[in-house]
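step: validate -> pass
step: tokenize input -> pass
step: predict -> running
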Amino acid sequence: MKSLLRNDVVKIVLFVAATLTLGALLTAPVYWAAKLIVAKGWLLDGPLQSIHESLERAKLSRCFNRAMMAAALIFVYPTLRWLGLSRDRHWLGLEKNPQRWMHLAFGFFVAGGTLLAMGWVFTQVGFYKANPKADPLLSIIGSALVAAFAVAFLEEFFFRGALLALALRTMKTMPAMLFVTVFFAVVHFLKPPADLPVIDVTWSAGFWMIGQIFGQFAEPAFIIAEFATLFCVGWILCWVRLRTGSLMLGIGLHAGWVFGIKTYAPLTRRAMKLDEMVPWAGADLKTGLSSLIVVFFTGLGLWLWLRRPGAGRGPTIASTDKGEENVQSGKAT
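step: predict -> pass
step: emit ->
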């Protein structure tokens, strides 16, 4: 048992389990507190009026998300100490990338361009139509750029930086990539279904919400429509991280995909019923078989491009005789 608890992957899984448990327990109190503040009017007619309005609109799903964020913040520091990262200065195993800005720009334009090209095709075949009430284009682009790069930097550092480096300390390359990719896809589904029923909020509401979220995985259409695409995205991002020894190409790709989704969504409206678009398209650009195909061929193109001499810096992973994988800082093997 003691040896099992020394495994970094086990520690990460326990962190996730603890976060889910505490978040579920906090969901109902967060919801009740929000409704109490609104009922008492404590934030009305003052500088915090916007917070009052936000709490007034808050549904159980939003309170669930905030509770999960609070739980993660509570557990993240002790988990990092448990992993011993404060004593390891080179645990990320990243290299200096002299092509970092080129990689960043290339990834952004490839991912964003291919996704928006697919969106243009969707409008031509009648899946979507222009939104006459859309905000000015420059405003939409500016907002999408900020959100895209903020999300990309944070998630790439966490998933392909920290989490992949930790997994590689105790696992071989392929299992580590699989673990991080599945984890990445699952985390992105920690949101309730669109048609979530209204319930009476009790202490068990958070656990009920978790059941609703993971219950989606029993639906084949859900797996095909979205989970498979996110898995493909995560696998590509893991591979380019290992191939280049840097996060910059992955950040560019991630930002490009997010930018495409966040730019296309406010500019268009669905022109067909959802069941008429399945399986080729869905509620947004990350859903449907077309998205999976576009992402797959983007990854194939990157694989061909990075095979060229000098395009990538080589994997930063070296196997030991014991069959373990160690993140190396410095020269790639």
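step: describe -> The chain has twelve helices and four strands.
step: cleanup -> pass
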